[in-house]
Design a protein that fits this description.
Elements: H1 18-31, H2 37-53, H3 55-66, H4 70-96, E1 100-101, E2 111-118, E3 121-125, H5 136-144, E4 148-152, H6 158-171, E5 177-179, H7 184-191, E6 197-201, H8 204-215, E7 221-224, E8 230-233, H9 239-251, E9 263-267, H10 268-285, E10 293-294, H11 298-309, E11 314-317, E12 321-322, E13 327-328, E14 331-334, H12 341-344, E15 351-357, H13 360-368, E16 375-379, H14 383-392, E17 397-400, E18 414-415, E19 421-422, E20 424-425, H15 427-433, E21 435-442, H16 459-468
Parallel strand pairs: 3-4, 3-6, 4-5, 6-7, 8-9, 8-16, 9-15, 14-15, 16-17
Antiparallel strand pairs: 1-2, 2-21, 7-19, 10-13, 11-14, 12-13, 18-20
Helix pairs in contact: 2-4, 2-5, 3-4, 3-6, 4-5, 5-15, 9-10
This protein binds nicotinamide-adenine-dinucleotide (NAD).
Length: 469
């Protein structure tokens, strides 16, 4: 369903004429209007206003879809997306500037530079857990780069998707940016249109299907995927602060965050103290909320409670759940079996396994025996430990002595590696991700000084060429 018509909430397919919408956006791109710095800045400012002027409506939609608190709605969806748009609006002129490169002697006279060229018409497929930040957030880079954009929000957060479909055409250029609501089948129908670039946020398995669909058209992709993000707590860590930060970030959005601490690896000497401090932090943060954290839907609730019921670990905190309210208590499981679902599948909920290890080497080996994570975290007070983990643990991103904050800066690229993703965005990196780096070289015609290179190839010309190239 395009933004021109109103979609029934939770539609499983779209009534939009997808080819016609994509054609319209392609025509707009062909006019050249989206290439001007004025258009880009205007749209980015409008996107910032869309977020800030509709803070209450956005918080309501997030409450309906996810039971999210207004503070977390503001922090993670409104402020992050508005901030990203404002940062890009301020800097896009600078990012677009040509930067001439000093060419080699053999290339002189001549000038060369990279022209950041918009791909054309691009597709963004969003996830439900931060429906605004993960759909309109990537759109910031796409708009800054001068593309026209189709946005496909997740059908799992229907109130948020419907609100985006209502607001986007009110604030943004209708013929350049369109929202199409629908499910996975709609995503595949969109991908089959052959976009000039696509950015997908979601699980690794669906990411594979998106990649396959894109391959048929050689559509370049950015894949923002999932996985299990570990937290190593070293024996020398500030355990009290570590426990608070781990508990807080595990409970935001009920643990349904791609870069939430999935599991903790604690060195034996501090393991019990860490469990006690996490228990205390949970009691403090969740006072008055005994029922637990709201899970997005029954499928995910059943997945989580089944994994918890199957654990061979010791439930040290929480463990209860409420099927009628789809709520699960913040739960800590100590030493689950490495082969059980809690340790093989991404958790994406308020359950935190803690694995005990005897050394830092064992902790690093544990992480590296598994797929490369989207994020890896470490708590330590020692520089040598920090440097070792930075060097030896591959991950999409890393935070030392905190969690999540690498997502919140415009100054660092955000993305995964291997099964946790392909490509990155945020700030200037988003602009670059949605741009083709076109090499441009200009040469004078006269004097035609390198004429010796033309055939017939003489011995003398060859000697000269060997010296030059
Ligand atoms: P999901 O993979 O189920 O869905 C994501 C999007 O893909 C939705 O818009 C959905 O409609 C669409 N989709 C579903 N089936 C499809 C198909 N066959 N082909 C094409 N598109 C299809 O993910 P989710 O449940 O919305 O989000 C949870 C997952 O996303 C977790 O694994 C999480 O780690 C990951 N995630 C990653 C990031 C990141 O930035 N790397 C952010 C949030 C979530």
């Amino acid at each position: 369903m395009t933004t021109e018509s109103v979609a029934p909430v939770g539609v499983s397919s779209t009534t939009t004429d997808i080819p016609a919408t994509v054609r319209r956006l392609r025509q707009t791109f062909a006019t050249g209007r989206t290439r001007s710095v004025e258009w880009r800045k205007g749209q980015l400012r409008a996107l910032e206003r869309l977020m800030t002027e509709n803070e209450t409506a956005i918080a309501d939609a997030l409450d309906k879809d996810l039971g999210r608190s207004p503070f977390e709605a503001w922090l993670a969806d409104v402020a992050s997306t508005a901030g990203e748009a404002a940062f890009a609006a301020k800097n896009v002129g600078k990012w677009m500037k040509r930067r001439h490169r000093l060419l080699e002697m053999s290339q002189l006279p001549g000038r060369g530079w990279v022209e950041h060229e918009p791909y054309g018409t691009v597709l963004i497929i969003g996830a439900w857990n931060f429906p605004f930040a993960l759909t309109l957030g990537p759109a910031v880079g796409a708009i800054a780069a001068g593309n026209t954009v189709v946005l496909k929000p997740s059908e799992v957060a229907p109130a948020s998707a419907a609100l985006m479909a209502e607001l986007v055409p009110r604030y943004l250029d209708k013929d350049a940016i369109a929202v199409i609501e629908g499910d996975g089948a709609v995503s595949q129908e969109l991908i089959a249109q052959g976009f000039d670039h696509l950015l997908f946020t979601g699980g690794t398995e669906i990411g594979r299907k998106v990649y396959e669909g894109a391959a048929a058209h050689l559509t370049p992709v950015t894949l923002e995927l999932g996985g299990k993000s570990p937290v190593i707590v070293s024996a020398d860590a500030d355990v009290e602060v570590a426990a608070k930060r781990i508990a807080w970030t595990k409970l935001i959005n009920s643990g349904q965050i791609c870069i939430a601490p999935d599991y903790v690896i604690a060195e034996a000497p501090i393991r019990d103290q860490l469990v006690d401090r996490i228990r205390a932090a949970v009691q403090e943060f969740e006072a008055g909320n005994a029922a637990g954290k709201k899970i997005v839907n029954e499928r995910h609730f059943n997945r989580l409670t089944t994994a918890l019921a199957a654990t061979k670990g010791q439930v040290a905190v929480g463990g209860g759940s409420d099927p009628a309210g789809l709520k699960i208590q913040p739960t800590v499981v100590v030493d689950p079996d490495p082969g059980e679902p809690l340790m093989t599948d991404e958790i994406f909920g308020p359950i935190l396994p803690i694995v005990t290890v005897q050394s830092l080497t064992e902790a690093i080996d544990f992480v590296n025996a598994r797929p490369k994570p989207l994020a890896a975290y470490l708590f330590t007070k020692t520089k040598a430990v920090r440097e070792r983990v930075i060097r030896e643990v591959p991950a999409g991103g890393m935070v030392i002595n905190h969690l999540l904050f690498h997502f919140a800066t415009h100054k660092l690229p955000f993305g995964g590696v291997g099964p946790s993703g392909l490509g990155a965005y945020h700030g200037k990196f988003g602009f670059e991700e949605f741009s083709h780096r076109k090499s441009v070289m200009t040469k004078p015609t006269r004097p035609d000084i390198a004429a010796f290179i033309y055939p017939p190839y003489t011995e003398k010309a060859w000697k000269l060429a060997r010296k030059l190239f």
